[in-house]
Amino acid sequence: MKDAFGTPQSLLVLGGTSEIGLATARRLVARRTRTVWLAGRLSPALEKAASGLRDLGADVRTVAFDALDPESHEENLGKVFAEGDIDMVLLAFGVLGDQARDEDEPLAAVCVAQTNYTGAVSAGLVCARALQSQGHGSLVVLSSVAGERARRANFIYGSSKAGLDAFAQGLGDALYGTGVHVMVVRPGFVRTKMTVGLEEAPMATTPEAVAEAIETGLRRRSETVWVPGALRMVMSALRHVPRPLFRRLPV
């Protein structure tokens, strides 16, 4: 259960090597989170991430998880919930893809969609059912401002995030009143290994800033969190720009 300050005592990170996921885990462990599960492809990188959190004093365990293998999700994630209640699940996995390549290689585009959307639907439903069975918990879903409106520069990635965002909102409505809280997080450009070499968008942020926004959102029981917050107004305006004009914008 969450402590008196609203901090989850146990955390499951789907995408155990995600920089945003690990920044969030570090921040919560520094508060009062004591048990952390990192779900990802078993690798030295996953073990290194687990070791880093153990150094901070957390009880950290790893579990095999592959977004592209939904048939394994129920069994593998079920092992986590069988060990005890989970107060918070952070769905933090995803791939950016390469827009130019993916347009020329449809199977590569499909991989982006299957990772960011299909894999998230599967894992999200498995975790939501487990949280509902225990009667409490938060499911935090990392979406993106890219899902707000498709842009020529990254519409494959953006469309997958749009689907994820809509799914998470609907799931939150379906779980309303059950004791399970769903929060959608929409960061802008985040400086991570995934975005190295890309031109920074305005209002670029960091994994640590996203982690702080997640913690604040949890405390407030928010349903949607923008990072940084000013992006909410920016994207609201962009959604209403006429399409012929939108095509010409340098976004």
From TrEMBL:
InterPro entries: NAD(P)-bd_dom_sf (IPR036291), Sc_DH/Rdtase_CS (IPR020904), SDR_fam (IPR002347). It is an enzyme of class 1 (oxidoreductase). Its EC number is 1.1.1.333. GO terms for molecular function: oxidoreductase activity. It comes from the Bacteria. The keyword Oxidoreductase applies. The keyword Aminoacyl-tRNA synthetase does not apply. Keywords: Oxidoreductase. Pfam families: adh_short. Signal peptide: none annotated. Belongs to the short-chain dehydrogenases/reductases (SDR) family. This is Decaprenylphospho-beta-D-erythro-pentofuranosid-2-ulose 2-reductase. It comes from Streptomyces anatolicus.
